[in-house]
Amino acid sequence: MQPILQIMTKRVMVLTGGGDCPGLNAVLRAIVKRAAQEKDWEVIGSIESFNGVLREPTEIEILDEKRVAGIHVQGGTIIGTVNKGGPFAWPVKNNDGTWTTVDRSDEMIRKLQYMGIDAVINIGGDGSQRISQKLFEKGLNIIGVPKTIDNDLAATDFTFGFQTAVQISTEALDKLVTTAASHNRVFILELMGRDAGWIALNTAIAGGAEICLIPEIPYDINKVVERINTRYVKGRGFCNIIIAEGAKPLGGHVTGEDTHEVGNEHIRLGGVGEKLRADLKNAGVEADVRVTVLGHLQRGGIPNAFDRVLATEFGVKAFEMVLEEKFGEMVAYHHPNIISVPFDEAINKPNLVDIGGDLVKTAKGVGISFGD
Ligand code: F6P
Questions:
Q1: I need a labelling partner for 102 at 20 to 30 A (CA). Which of 29, 40, 118, 280 fits?
Q2: Residue to substitute in 77, 84, 128, 150 for testing ligand 1 pocket (most ligand atoms within 8 angstroms of CB)
Q3: For residue 284, what are the domain limits?
């Protein structure tokens, strides 16, 4: 059988997996621009992560310099993304209407060989890089690029998208502070951050919140009430609370719903801000308490300058790792260098807020309460 694409060129396939993130397009552009400096390389995008390869007919797109021109300023990803399924857990409908998953990884690797793909660059978060690791162990020439607004990958100082999310969240808090002060209200701002409270913590410091509740520090509702009360004299005052979606009370659980989506290992978090409001009311807080959920506003839109630069560095490095055949590794930022680390090192532990670390000390030093 002949390969479906000409084999005079070497081919790298790129794909974006997991939740989208400002800077994904800047990585794609950088890979394509760097590859164009080599005479014999072609970049092919797989639509919606590995789904583009797994679908029949195959959904792929050649990415050339014309296609990626100017996309570094765009949010989202021009080749689409998904956060469930994938080669090891492909959803299949049973005859009785229920769903199950099947492992299609071997079939996918054979298909990539048939397509004449020499290497794959997988741009994604921890879940995506776990898939990269398993595919590498099966012999695929694969390289990872870390992506997540949550900044929860330990192998890299920062992931791109994080700084943009903090900026968007801080601008939201700045707006809430003025309305809270005008109305003597308590405002709760619910931010993203499934396991790691980095967005919440940075926003609380940058915007000057009084209380910051993060997944790493379960909160005592009575301590939260105490801190709110310090902000009110004879009914006048205001208070701003930042809460990460993965925060939980002492002895309690995260707030969200199990969507029972096949191939999705996570519950969908959300609602912790409303839960906190109800708990504060039950605990006797008299002030008017309002909740704002920033949600996907943190993930959409244009990446800031820092994230565009980091994403571009990651893209160039990823392609150079293809040239050097540094497969089984993920790009990482170790200030001031862009390095690579083996997948198992990249995914073996999450980057959580260090509760004894300097950033928490800084926050406490300016009076921010963690409800602990
Ligand atoms: O991992 C990044 C993240 O933004 C989490 O903070 C959040 O829980 C999740 O993605 C939401 O993903 P989705 O858009 O698929 O619900």
A1: 118
A2: 150
A3: 163-300+354-365
pTM: 0.94
Our CA angle for 50, 55, 58, nearest 5°, is: 90
The CATH number that applies at residue 78 is: 3.40.50.450
Question: Both 211 and 130 in a single domain?
Answer: no
State the catalytic residue, choosing from 40, 64, 106, 150: 150
CA 161 to centroid of ligand 1, rounded, Å? 13
Q: Would you say the CB of residue 192 lies under 6 angstroms from ligand 1?
A: yes
Are both 281 and 313 inside the same structural domain?
no
Instruction: Say yes or no to pLDDT of 183 above 90.
Output: yes
**Bridge partners of residue 14, in order along the sequence:** 45, 121
Cβ burial 195-208 (10 Å sphere, 16+ → b, else e): bbbbbbbbbbbebe
Q: Whose CA is nearest to atom 8 of ligand 1?
A: 194
Q: What is the pLDDT of residues 143-177, one digit of tens each?
A: 999 999 999 999 999 999 999 999 999 999 999 99
